[in-house]
Amino acid sequence: MQQYPSLSKQNSEVVRNPILVVEMEQLRAELWLERSLNRLQNYLNDYLLSVLVTKEKLPVRDSSIYRSIYQTLVNELNNTLPGSQVAIALTQAKTKSCKISYLSSKGIISQSSKSQSPLLAITLKSGKQLQIKLNEVIEIEDLRYLETQETPKAWAIEDDFGNVWGWLIISYTPLNSGTDSLTSAQVEIQSQLIKRAASLCAIALMKLKNIESLQKVSRSLSEFNQELERNNQLKNQFLANTSHEIRTPLSSIIGFTHLLLAQGYNPSSERHKEYLSIIQSSGKHLLALINDILDLSKIEANQLEIQWEEVNVSLLCRNVLALVKEKAANKGLQLRLELEPQEIVIVADPLRLKQMLLNLIFNALKFTTSGSVGLQVKVKGELVHFTVWDTGAGIPEEYQAELFQPYCQIPNSRVSSEEGTGLGLALTRKLAEIHGGSVKVVSEIDRGSSFTVILPRSQMSEFEETEVEIEQKDNMSGDRSYQSGLRLSYSSDILLVEDDLHNAKLIDAYLSKLGYQVICAYNSVQMWEALKRSQPAVILMDIYLPDVNGLDLVKKLRQDKNYQNIPIIAETAMAMKGDRETCLAAGVDEYIAKPIDLPVLGNLVSKYCQLSKKRI
Questions:
Q1: 3-state secondary structure 30-74
Q2: Enclosing domain of residue 161
Q3: What is the pLDDT of residue 413?
Q4: Is 439 found in the same domain as 368?
Q5: Label partner for 319 (CA 20 to 30 A): which of 71, 237, 470, 549?
């Protein structure tokens, strides 16, 4: 074996050199510091890693993962600093004090105030002795005092933004000269150890808080993606149902129109009259479908206009049943109406109330194959209950919660295969809520269902009819030619500006039968040419033209003294909220939305032709 004779001599020199001894002790203390902090850091990292690996929902601040971090800090400092008692006081919400929540005892955390370990004490600013024990309350002012002493006894556990999580409190016993005591070099840097340990704890808590935020964002994104997927499924279902609904009446319209064209229309043929009736009914079905979609969109955009009126409930209910009488008879179902003996008047939108009741009755007829369908109206205090009941198949309880969701369909193989759009009940509930009411359902399999619309008898807000609305009602009820399309006793020129050939031919044919001479223009150039040849009594103006916006044409006509007094009626597919006001603001005298109700158009043309003659 190789010998090192000079080794003992060198060691002797080190021992005899006090500077080297001090340096070695200092280096040993620094290694002790870094080793202690590294061990603490490793424990804290393990806790954070466990949260990331398990991907579990992070608990609240005072739960196990946070307790583990605090307890680890207390344990490690207690083991590293013999003869000391370590505690953590957590801040209390909305107070200026902290409560000791974690306490060391013989290297083990004591979670019970019944600990038999001797308690150490610290001297506060007031001179009062505070024992370090669980649940002891200490003022933040005292903690800050202890933090600023030459030998600190308290250290704030705070993040980079100055938010204090709690306070680390350490009470020392006199330094022993035994082998288990700290060296003088270690004692000198123990304050640095405690401060850095508190900082590591604060960093771990901040990382934990960030992980919690990321998990919340992740869960939110997951829920958002699930909602998107659900909405996508509902959209696809809605498109499929709507496609079915549209194609069914379109098949009738196209098919029966083809038969009429192939056979040659004979007005006296009962079969041809039946064909036309089917075409008209199918067209109305398509219009109702479009209106349902638009109504739901308006409600969700908070743009649906409600016309408040006093409504005679008995009269309205009888009118509703009259509309479904034929459908019920075709299925062999009895219709029943139960009303209170006294007259019932409520403040509501009569059109929307009728819509709600028709939606419910059509559903009842659809899902009832035998028996009866009824409408019952009862007054209960300041509320009116409209109950539509049936003796149909009933609705399974597990599906009842989905009934009022837009586009949702409840499967039922025992009734007609007609599907509908799934909008009727959703619209009914939303309309009831707009009226300050609600809808409830009671159903039992094979025993039938009942849907009840509950509405207040009066509304909190005042309701008024505008002059335009009153004028429209007068037009609807006062002029009988409006309903009958009665031929007028005079003839006037009508300039129709319409780019759709089929719509133009339809309006031309109808107005010509009423005795008007219709001049058709399919773009702005043809309109100006027609105005040079003659001055019409009324101009019917489409808004969407191939070469210019119809509203711009209206503005130009109003700026030209030769044409500014000619009545202009906008006939357009612009049927959303605000479209009528937009047209009137551009200078038109009247507005009618497509699909055009021909008797209404005839009445408006008659009215403005007479006004035009008076102006002349």
A1: HHHHHHHHHHHHHHHHHHHHHHHHHCCCCCCCCCHHHHHHHHHHH
A2: 84-173
A3: 46
A4: yes
A5: 470
Q: For residues 389 and 184, give the distance between their C-alpha atoms in angstroms, rounded to a whole number.
A: 92
pLDDT score of 71 more than 80: yes
- CB within 8 A of 457, min separation 6: which ones? 345, 346, 347, 379, 382, 383, 384
Do residues 451 and 556 share a domain? no
Please tell me whether residues 489 and 364 are part of one structural domain. no
Q: Under a CB-based contact definition with an 8 Å cutoff, are residues 498 and 504 in contact?
A: yes
Cβ–Cβ under 8 Å, residues 412 and 373: no
What is the spatial distance between Cα 49 and Cα 243, in angstroms, rounded to a whole number? 52
Q: Quick count: other Cβ atoms within 10 Å of Cβ 198?
A: 22
Q: Are residues 446 and 507 in the same domain?
A: no
What number of H helices and E strands is found in the chain?
17, 20
The predicted structure's pLDDT at residue 417: 44
User: Do 316 and 401 fall within a single domain?
Assistant: yes
In which element (H, E) is residue 360 found? helix 350-366
DSSP-based three-state secondary structure for 598? helix
Provide the b/e sequence for 575-610 (b: ≥16 CB within 10 Å): eeeebbeebeebbbbbbbbeebebbbbbbbbbbbbe
CA distance 243 to 248: 9
If asked whether residues 546 and 421 sit together in one domain, one would say no
Is residue 561 located within the same domain as residue 600?
yes
Share the mean pLDDT of the chain.
79
Least confident range from 131-140, 206-215, 480-489: namely: 480-489
Tell me which amino acid residue 355 is.
Answer: Q
| pTM of the predicted model over 0.85 | no
User: What is the distance between the alpha carbons of residues 86 and 171, in angstroms, rounded to a whole number?
Assistant: 7
Q: Quick check: is 218 in a domain?
A: no
How open is the CA angle 113-115-120, to the nearest 5 degrees?
90
Q: Which helix (H) or strand (E) holds 442?
A: strand 438-444
- Cα distance between residue 335 and residue 365, in whole Å: 10
- Domain co-membership, 509 together with 610: yes
In three-state form (DSSP H/G/I as H, E/B as E, the rest C), the secondary structure along 143-194 is: HHHHHCCCCCCEEEEECCCCCEEEEEEEEECCCCCCCCCCCHHHHHHHHHHH
